[in-house]
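Illustration 12: DUF4190 domain-containing protein.
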Amino acid sequence: MARWTRDERLDQPQDFVRFMMEDYLNKGGFKKKIHKGEEVWQEGEGFLASARFIRYEYSDGLFHLEAWIGKRRENALKGFVGALPKKMFRESLEELIRLLHQPLPEAREGEAGRVVTIQVPDHAKYAVPAMVVSIVGIIVGLMLSPLGGILLGSVGISLGQNARNSSKGNIARASVILGTVAVIAALVGYILNMIFLFSFFK
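Figure caption equivalent — predicted structure in token form:
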């Protein structure tokens, strides 16, 4: 198995860790599934962007995390191929782990109903770059390079997926749509170019 793994001694309450993981997984669009006989959390089906996977356990204060990209073949979160999506995924998990270590205020006598504020991951920083890359992907795919349009569109989709449930979720979701349009536009541009070349040399 080619997986990115981390083992952390947290010694945090079980309900806190469960809340943080559910928040991260829901924001990232992960769904619980059985993959190759194993219960995991999966985001995406690997059509336009690689599917992302997470598996974690928390027991006796020890947190174990496994993450990888790829539905058929597991890819760790390092390497040249798909470097940007891997880097973003890894950085988001590292931020999650950092926040899992955050100190929790101790409950005091008579404060049973007190609201406790904790930090949770927010990937809003990816939303605007996702929009820009997706729009550039449409232009490049139609006018310059179909391959460039596909690559930029795929990056826009990956960035948008990371931020779609953040505080800038509307921008991120629009970016995913535009990234998809960029990929389709690039494919259409490629087909039109091939038809033109075929007609020209006929």
